[in-house]
Amino acid sequence: FKESNGPTNSYVAISQVDRLQSEPESIRKWREEQKERLEQLDANSQKQEAEWKEKAIKELEEWYARQDEKLQKTKASNRVADEAFYKQPFADVIGYVAAEEAFVNDAEDVFPGTEWERVAQLCDFNPKSSKQAKDVSRMRSVLISLKQAPLVR
């Protein structure tokens, strides 16, 4: 025979039965209805969450499709611009790169005293066409003076 001070499983079971028997009918009924309502709300929220996830997946796929389409259009327009760029190497818009390519191509034809002329080919000496934020007029004047009177070694 073993004595214990605390409740055992049989005491817990008896207390639950006592509570259920002592509970009024209206409270028991309300508790059951509340439990059903909560289960229904949980089911509805899970259903709504699933619908939102499906909608989000569809919108994301559409967004990726639009982005891919924009990327393809941009690639195509860049290819067309590249072709136009290399067909007209000395156009105003692309003069810098064309001049640099000409500079590299003329690298074999280096004559003493033509260095500054070759550098000047890479520079834009028109002050109004320059859209830079910094003032480069001093550097421009130095390059022009060196082009006109190159340094002698």
TrEMBL record:
GO terms for biological process: clathrin-dependent endocytosis; intracellular protein transport. It is a peripheral membrane protein. InterPro entries: Clathrin_L-chain. One of its GO terms (molecular function) is structural molecule activity. The keyword Iron does not apply. The keyword Membrane applies. Keywords: Coated pit, Cytoplasmic vesicle, Membrane. Pfam families: Clathrin_lg_ch (PF01086). It is found in: Cytoplasmic vesicle membrane; Membrane, Coated pit. GO terms for cellular component: clathrin coat of coated pit; clathrin coat of trans-Golgi network vesicle; postsynaptic endocytic zone cytoplasmic component; synaptic vesicle membrane. Belongs to the clathrin light chain family. Clathrin is the major protein of the polyhedral coat of coated pits and vesicles. This is Clathrin light chain.
